[in-house]
Amino acid sequence: MVLTGRFKRDRAVLLGIILVALIFRLAWADRIPGINGDEADVAYQIRAWMDGLDSNWITPTGRFFSPFLVAMIIPIQKIFGPTFFALRLPAMLSGFIEVVLAFWLLPKALGQRIGVLLALLMCCMPGYIVQSRLIWDLSHAGIISILSVYCIWKRNLLGALLTLAAAVIIHKVNIFITPMILIPFAWDWLENGRARTGVKISALCAMGVAGAIIAYLLSRNIPSEYGDLTHTAVLRAVMPWKFIPFFIHVVRLVTGVEFFPAPAHIAWLILLDAAGMGLAFYLLWAGTKSLLKKKTDPEARRTLSIVAAWAASVVAIYLVAGEYGIAGGHIFYVLGLGVPTLWVFLLLAQEVLDNEEKLISRSEMAASVFLAITAGFYFFPLLTSADGTDRMYLTSAQEPKQTAYEWIRSDFKARSANRRDPSPAQLEIIADDWWAYWPTVYLDSAYSNRAKVYHYELIVPRGLDERNVVTSENQLKEIFSRGGYAISIKGGLVDDLIARTYPSTDVLIRKEIPGFSLPGTPERTVVSVWRLKSSGF
Q1: pLDDT band of 486, cuts 50, 70, 90
Q2: What is the C-alpha to C-alpha distance for residues 121 and 117, in angstroms, rounded to an integer?
Q3: Contact between residue 335 and residue 341 where contact means Cβ atoms under 8 Å apart
């Protein structure tokens, strides 16, 4: 990126922010946050296929694997084998590409002032940072966002259509960026007509919303919890006040408030929500008003088409999914709109300020604030939340599930060498639900004499062979009697099963694995390994 003027003088500041953004995407990614079952499930299935075993190529949520993800995982697994670093390396590479693309393409398309500021903010968005650390199909959301913005502003229709196709292949929910990508091109076509600006905006928004909903229906990927799509969409349309809590989550996505560790800091959450929503509504009102006053200016009309396209995409998501489609764990499904949302707010801010130099004069401070927020939202909570409140955050200096598995392998080897304690014929491990089962199976795939790993659940989850599921106390006793092990997450199902089966744990050996804890507080157990005592121990 060639820098001029103010940017050339502040080159060191910009490069420093870029470096920090890269560090946030790469540092300790193999253990912060803790490896979750969905990630390990995908990686194990690909490894199983590479080893000639069966794989159904279906994600835990019922979708086929993204071909982009598979293409990255296979060579990395060939080189590094089944390690947690290798598991997340594709996401880390995508995060690196995001940062490079943001600072290379966005200033070229949007100009240095808007482009560099948008790149800075995008690189600091908590949503994109965490998706650069988790190996999900949405790990490429940032790349798609940047390419879509570039193609829209450059009016590259072929590039925009290819970007849209790639987005939908990665995840079908990205069909909702269809209005954002296509409406600006339709606007250019309508510019040759004589329709009034208001009519154009209304017609294009309606077309975009209808097109996105129809395309989503055709994709047949409607989560069952949304119920009757047509009925609920009509209800949301006639109850527009329900759009407010939905829009709060949209604003939270780009400000990072969505990831604030509530409810421990509920006062901060309310304050940040109020500030974010107040700024968002002001920019939407004042910026759009300013643009409509200059509707005879081609540049203003072009910006209006971007705002209308963004609004159509947001409304389409609201009508189909409502508050359930963007709240909590679903927030990552709309990351494709993250950069476009920031872009729209920057364009509106530019209109309000009437001076681009004012908009960029505090870009370093804005990006630094975002970086500080990101550090607080991710690293501090991730290092101090190992108390069982959220299984995603169970981690330590070494990933606790990896520590548990390595201890089991070491103990099994020691028992095999101990003549007083004959080792079992096969290593058997009961793992605590989805979050421990798949990481254990994935790590174990490095060995030719693979362990028999059982998933403990009350109901057999989709995609699992019933023969690999433990559901009763008798099965636990039987596996323990053969010299097997159990991995339990604090407060998980295996903890309850062992407490019921062995009221007195004196007959068991327990290896406690702590997670990060606050300074001055004792270490807290987050994962335990259990087995029966034997004559040799």
Answers
A1: very high
A2: 6
A3: no
- Of the two residues 345 and 21, the one the predictor is more confident about is 345
What does the block give as tokens for 75?
């060579």
Q: Are the beta carbons of 490 and 512 closer than 8 angstroms?
A: no
For residue 50, with 0-12 CB atoms within 10 Å meaning exposed, 13-18 middle and 19 or more buried, which class applies? middle
Task: Give every CB contact of residue 31 below 8 A, 6+ residues apart in sequence.
Answer: 84, 395, 396, 397, 398, 399, 402
The half-sphere exposure of 521 on its side-chain side, counting CA atoms within 13 A, is 13
Q: Are strands 508-515 and 524-532 parallel, antiparallel or unpaired?
A: antiparallel
pTM > 0.85: yes or no? no
Q: Between 493-501 and 473-481, two packed helices, what is the crossing angle to 10 degrees? A: 80
d(CA 128, CA 336): 10
- Residue 433, Ramachandran bin (φ over 0: left; ψ between -120 and 50: alpha; else beta): left
Q: Residues 221-238: what's their mean pLDDT?
A: 52
Confidence label for 224 from pLDDT (cuts 50, 70 and 90): very low
Q: What are the tens digits of pLDDT across the range 287-309?
A: 888 888 887 788 888 888 889 88
Q: How far lies 334's CA from each of 136, 213, 223, 321, 517, in Å?
A: 14, 15, 15, 11, 33
